[in-house]
Amino acid sequence: MKVLNFGSLNLDYVYQVDHILIPGETLAAKERNTFCGGKGLNQSIALAKAGIPVYHAGMIGDGGEILLDTCRENGVNTEFILKIDGPCGHTVIQVDKDGQNCILLFGGSNRSITREFVDEVLNSFEKGDILLLQNEVNELDYIIDKAYDKGMMIIINPSPYDSALDACDLSKVSLFLVNEIEGYQITGEKEPEQILAKIKELYPKAKIVLTLGGDGSVYQDETGIYRQGIFKVKAVDTTAAGDTFTGYFISSILENMPVQQGLELAAKASAIAVSRPGATASIPLREEVLNCELS
Ligand code: RIB
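# alpha-D-ribofuranose complex -> structure
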C-alpha cells in the first residue's frame, strides 16, 4: 500500500508584526523569513517525520528548488514533483506577537496541474493505495474521480474551502479532516455535534476528524465519537499546526493505532509545531513527539 499526497508546495514569506494589519493600515514588519510550506508539502513532511513513506505530487515554479530539497532532506519521494517555468506557489504570512497568523495565498505553479499530469501520476498507483488531498491545487475534482475509479482510498483536508470543492464528488471521500469553519462550509451547521451529524447524513461511509482550535478535536466513525483536548504551549507561530495534526493522525491510522492514541499523538505533534516558527521547519520528528512531556 502506497501513500500519495497530491498537493501544494509554497514559499512562505513570513512577516513578524505587532498585530495583524487592518484595512488601509501600513505597518513596519519586525522581521522577515522565508520558509518552505504549502498545506500539501507540510502534510507530506508531517507524514514523513511521523515515519510514513510518502510520494508527493505537485508542481514548483521559479525559485522553488528549495521545496524539492526540503522534500528530499525529509525523505519524501519527489519523482512526481515537476519543475515548471513561471511563479512558484507562495504566500505572504503575517504572524503577530501572540503567534496568530493570516495568510495571503498565490497559487502560481500549484494551479498549473493538467489532466495529463494527473493521469501520469495516478498510473503509478493502484487499488488500496491512499490519496491525500487539500484544496490548494487545481483539478481537484478530476483527481478525486480518477483516484476513486482506481479504487484508491481518498482522504481530504478541504482547506482553504472555496467553490472548487463544490465541483468535487465528496461522496468518494473516506476520511475528512476539517476545522469548524470548513465543517460549516460543507454542512451549513455551526455546532460541532451538528456538523458531525450532518456529515454522517451526507456521507454515511466517511470518517471525520473535526478540529476545534483550543477545544481540541473530535473523531467520528461507525464505532462512535472520540474526543481529544489540546496540549498547552506558548504559541510562537500557528502556521502548519493543522497540517502537522493531519499528517500525524493519518500516520496513526496507517499504523492501526487505537483512535484515542492517534488523536493524542496528533495533538502533541501539532502543539510542538505551534511552539516554533515556520511551516515545515516547525514539524517535529516522531521521536520527539513520543518523548515530549506536554500536559
Ligand atoms: O497550512 C499552512 C500553510 O498554508 C502555509 O504553509 C501556507 O503555505 C499555506 O498554504
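# post-check
The first helix runs from residue 39 to 49.
Residues 8, 10, 12, 37-39, 42, 91, 103, 105, 136, 239-240, 242-243, 279 surround alpha-D-ribofuranose (CB under 6 Å).
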